[in-house]
Amino acid sequence: MTPGGDFLFTFGPIFIGIIFVIVISIFVFAIIKGVTQWNQNNNSPKLNVNARVVSKRTSVHGGGESSSYSSYFVTFEVESGDRLEFMVKDTEYGMLVEGDKGELAFQGTRYLGFNRSR
After folding, report:
1. Alpha carbon separation from 70 to 2, 33, 55, 116 (Å, rounded)
2. How many CB atoms lie within 10 A of CB 13?
Protein backbone atom coordinates (compact mmCIF):
# COMPACT_ATOMS: atom_id res chain seq x y z
CA MET A 1 0.00 0.00 0.00
CA THR A 2 1.07 3.52 -0.66
CA PRO A 3 1.23 5.94 2.25
CA GLY A 4 -1.08 8.44 0.44
CA GLY A 5 -3.89 5.90 0.08
CA ASP A 6 -4.51 5.77 3.81
CA PHE A 7 -5.14 9.51 3.86
CA LEU A 8 -7.89 9.29 1.21
CA PHE A 9 -9.65 6.45 3.03
CA THR A 10 -9.51 8.43 6.26
CA PHE A 11 -10.33 11.89 4.93
CA GLY A 12 -12.92 10.89 2.27
CA PRO A 13 -15.72 9.76 4.62
CA ILE A 14 -15.12 12.76 6.89
CA PHE A 15 -15.33 15.17 3.94
CA ILE A 16 -18.53 13.55 2.62
CA GLY A 17 -20.01 13.67 6.13
CA ILE A 18 -19.23 17.39 6.46
CA ILE A 19 -20.84 18.15 3.08
CA PHE A 20 -23.91 16.11 4.08
CA VAL A 21 -24.26 18.05 7.36
CA ILE A 22 -23.91 21.39 5.53
CA VAL A 23 -26.59 20.51 2.96
CA ILE A 24 -29.01 19.25 5.63
CA SER A 25 -28.34 22.39 7.72
CA ILE A 26 -29.23 24.62 4.75
CA PHE A 27 -32.53 22.77 4.26
CA VAL A 28 -33.38 22.94 7.97
CA PHE A 29 -32.54 26.67 8.06
CA ALA A 30 -34.79 27.35 5.04
CA ILE A 31 -37.68 25.42 6.61
CA ILE A 32 -37.31 27.20 9.95
CA LYS A 33 -37.14 30.60 8.21
CA GLY A 34 -40.29 29.83 6.19
CA VAL A 35 -42.26 28.62 9.21
CA THR A 36 -41.14 31.67 11.23
CA GLN A 37 -42.26 34.08 8.47
CA TRP A 38 -45.59 32.23 8.10
CA ASN A 39 -46.16 32.47 11.87
CA GLN A 40 -45.27 36.19 11.94
CA ASN A 41 -47.72 36.86 9.09
CA ASN A 42 -50.49 34.97 10.89
CA ASN A 43 -49.89 37.01 14.05
CA SER A 44 -49.85 40.35 12.17
CA PRO A 45 -53.03 42.40 11.81
CA LYS A 46 -54.82 42.50 8.48
CA LEU A 47 -54.44 46.04 7.16
CA ASN A 48 -56.28 47.95 4.43
CA VAL A 49 -54.50 51.12 3.30
CA ASN A 50 -54.79 53.52 0.38
CA ALA A 51 -51.94 52.86 -2.01
CA ARG A 52 -50.68 53.37 -5.54
CA VAL A 53 -48.96 50.82 -7.79
CA VAL A 54 -45.43 52.15 -8.32
CA SER A 55 -43.69 49.36 -10.22
CA LYS A 56 -43.87 45.74 -11.29
CA ARG A 57 -41.13 43.19 -11.87
CA THR A 58 -40.64 39.52 -12.59
CA SER A 59 -37.95 37.08 -11.55
CA VAL A 60 -37.36 34.05 -13.77
CA HIS A 61 -35.74 30.96 -12.23
CA GLY A 62 -34.41 27.89 -14.00
CA GLY A 63 -34.40 27.49 -17.74
CA GLY A 64 -31.78 26.06 -20.02
CA GLU A 65 -31.97 22.31 -19.61
CA SER A 66 -34.58 22.51 -16.83
CA SER A 67 -38.04 24.02 -16.77
CA SER A 68 -38.33 27.64 -15.76
CA TYR A 69 -40.83 29.46 -13.59
CA SER A 70 -41.52 33.11 -12.89
CA SER A 71 -42.21 34.99 -9.68
CA TYR A 72 -44.19 38.23 -9.92
CA PHE A 73 -43.68 41.26 -7.66
CA VAL A 74 -45.58 44.55 -7.34
CA THR A 75 -44.40 47.60 -5.39
CA PHE A 76 -47.04 49.78 -3.76
CA GLU A 77 -46.60 53.26 -2.30
CA VAL A 78 -48.84 54.07 0.68
CA GLU A 79 -49.97 57.55 1.73
CA SER A 80 -47.04 57.99 4.14
CA GLY A 81 -44.60 57.56 1.23
CA ASP A 82 -43.42 54.11 2.35
CA ARG A 83 -43.08 51.48 -0.35
CA LEU A 84 -44.05 47.86 0.10
CA GLU A 85 -43.22 45.06 -2.33
CA PHE A 86 -45.30 41.90 -2.43
CA MET A 87 -45.09 38.68 -4.40
CA VAL A 88 -48.40 38.27 -6.26
CA LYS A 89 -50.03 35.63 -8.43
CA ASP A 90 -49.64 35.87 -12.18
CA THR A 91 -53.32 36.72 -12.62
CA GLU A 92 -53.07 39.64 -10.16
CA TYR A 93 -49.85 40.82 -11.81
CA GLY A 94 -51.55 41.01 -15.20
CA MET A 95 -54.48 43.04 -13.84
CA LEU A 96 -52.38 45.69 -12.09
CA VAL A 97 -51.02 48.70 -13.97
CA GLU A 98 -48.40 51.15 -12.76
CA GLY A 99 -50.21 54.25 -11.50
CA ASP A 100 -53.34 52.39 -10.34
CA LYS A 101 -54.73 53.78 -7.10
CA GLY A 102 -56.90 51.92 -4.64
CA GLU A 103 -57.02 49.99 -1.40
CA LEU A 104 -54.22 47.53 -0.62
CA ALA A 105 -54.96 44.66 1.77
CA PHE A 106 -52.04 42.84 3.38
CA GLN A 107 -51.04 40.91 6.49
CA GLY A 108 -47.37 41.18 7.41
CA THR A 109 -45.51 40.31 4.22
CA ARG A 110 -48.53 38.47 2.76
CA TYR A 111 -50.40 40.17 -0.08
CA LEU A 112 -54.17 39.80 0.29
CA GLY A 113 -55.49 41.94 -2.55
CA PHE A 114 -55.85 45.31 -4.21
CA ASN A 115 -59.16 47.01 -5.02
CA ARG A 116 -58.75 49.69 -7.64
CA SER A 117 -60.65 52.95 -6.99
CA ARG A 118 -62.94 54.19 -9.70
Report:
1. 53, 22, 17, 24
2. 10
55 plus 112 within the same structural domain: yes
pTM score, whole prediction: 0.76
Q: What is the mean pLDDT of each run of 10 residues along the chain (118 residues)?
A: 66 90 96 94 94 96 87 96 95 94 96 91
How many domains does the structure of the chain reveal? 2
For residue 67, give the CATH number of its domain. 2.40.50.660
Report the pLDDT value the prediction gives residue 6, as an integer from 0 to 100.
77
Distance CA 107, CA 76 (A): 14
